[in-house]
Amino acid sequence: MVVQWVRWGLMVVSGLALLPLVILDMVIGSYRVSPMVVLKALVDGIDPVFNVPHDAYLVVWQLRLPEALASLILGASLASAGAVLQGILRNPLASTYTLGISAAAGFGAAVAILLGAGYVIRYYLPVITEPYLVVIGAFIAASSAALLVYFLSFIKGASPVTIILAGVAVMFVFSTGTSLIQYLTGNPDVTHAIVMWMLGSVTNVTLNYIPYMALSLLAIPYYVLIAWRLNALNLGDDVAHSLGVNVRNTS
Questions:
Q1: Residue 230 domain-assigned (yes or no)
Q2: CB–CB of 224/236 below 8 Å?
Q3: Tens digits of per-residue pLDDT, 71-111?
Q4: Would residue 126 count as lying in a domain?
Q5: What is the pTM of this model?
Q6: CA 20 to 30 Å from 50, out of 8, 15, 95, 181?
Q7: Domain span at residue 241?
Q8: How far is residue 40's CA from residue 225's CA, in Å, rounded to a whole number?
Q9: 69 within domain boundaries
Q10: Distance (Å, rounded) from C-alpha 215 to C-alpha 140?
Q11: Number of domains into which the chain is organized
Q12: Minimal CA–CA distance to 150: which of 194, 89, 211, 103?
């Protein structure tokens, strides 16, 4: 019981520490903005009562706030996904990278960039823009890799170690495909776009993207509800089954 209270206490403290860290993130930059000006600008975005300078307002709302929110969402999504994979596979090395999911996402994005999807969409489906299509390509490829690893878990005799090794093999396959695309394309702009996408950046994020990115957080409450099952799996299938966990459906 004491350990549980300590754990919840650490979670609360960590959550409360996010606010000053976000403010600090919006303060730091080439354009100097004091913490008080940042707070006033945030309030002005809801109800203009302080009338902060227009340039400071734009820096906070158009640049630094979207970047901070995007970083929080990305961090929470990757951390929760990694924690769940480590719990299911009972291996601290398990992650979206070692299972090939991230490499597959990069490959899907590279294919979308290579095909010049923005040109096709601009003339035939003007509602959708190129960044969204790149995201769709990355999602489809990542989902395919995840399903491949998922179905592998149903193969008789497939242990967590086997699944991780298979994921590493999938990672190298998709990474090789991405490297081939970069090597064979004759367009330096395409190569540069692929490299920048693979490196990752929140520079071009706007507030319009945040609601779509936040959809990835919807799975976290479910992860919290099944956390005890994942902890039981770490004790072994037999022990987890004796505790009432459906091992096959959970893993």
A1: yes
A2: no
A3: 999 999 988 888 888 887 888 888 888 888 999 999 998 88
A4: yes
A5: 0.79
A6: 15
A7: 208-251
A8: 38
A9: no
A10: 16
A11: 3
A12: 89
